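Open question from group meeting: does this chain pack into something compact, or does most of it stay loose? Before anyone orders reagents, we agreed to write out a predicted structure and look at it together. Recording both the input and the output here so the notebook holds the full record.
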Amino acid sequence: MTAGRILVIKLAALGDVVQAFGPFAAIRAHHPGAEITLLTTPPYAGLLARSPWFDRIWDDGRPAWSDLPALWRLARRLRAARFERVYDLQTSSRSSRYRLMVGNGAEWSGIAPGASHPHANPARDLMHTAERQREQLEMAGIADFPAPALDWLDDDISGLGLPARFALLIPGASPGRPLKRWPVERFAALAATLGLPVAVVGGPAEAPLAAAIARQARVIDLTGRTSLAGLGAVARRAAFAIGNDTGPTHLAAAAGCPTLVLFGPESDPALCAPRGRAVAVLRHPSLAALEVAEVRAALAGLVAS
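Structure tokens returned:
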């Protein structure tokens, strides 16, 4: 199939969206003349609207199950679009149920019961996200996987006051998973030894982390000051990045910034480590016990490679 009406589903989260850049590019390359719609959620619609992969972005992809009017509107919209093929890259129980909304006439790549092109690998949950999605698309007939062009992952950052050379720190992570965070005191102690200014990125909630680091090092506080595309632009200009296993770290790595990712016991880098031009992973049984010296040694290896 090289033309037609195609639906791609990717709802969340940021790290998973970033790791779908390659599959997005492969789907577009396989369907160069198709009208491709992305079903996503509001946090990622603006970012992906900049990309060259989609003709339309729908951001109403995750209504609450209790919001019956919103579910009805989504179902009616999906059915009316008359999609010919669906690539479900979310592959969740929610997205699989959307097959009923789209209608059984559409070809379906994913794990939904009755899918025409199922990802029929019982070990799929033991694969890294990148390899799992690639195999899913291969089983749907896609053989060409071009490197995704990311020149669109940019923004005007001239007003941020960044110096010519700086490090990028990403000290935040999901608020509900505190064990994924290296203590901010260690980030601050590391920053004080780097010998160059550090830009700290994150959402507005991470502003106290930037303030804590600023007590020991020269900090450019960018928390709450960049769009996702702007974060890509900052990362592209940084000397290197150090961050927890969180979405902005995935984005920095994808932008080509040499990136050191800190993993604790709550997530497995074999399944979800960021991918990029130069990425190193440092995993410790307890991030609270990870010493600054260990991080500095891993960073030296990354920068020297």
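Observations to bring back to the group:
The first strand starts at residue 5 and ends at 9.
Residues 158-304 form a domain with the Rossmann fold fold (CATH 3.40.50.2000).
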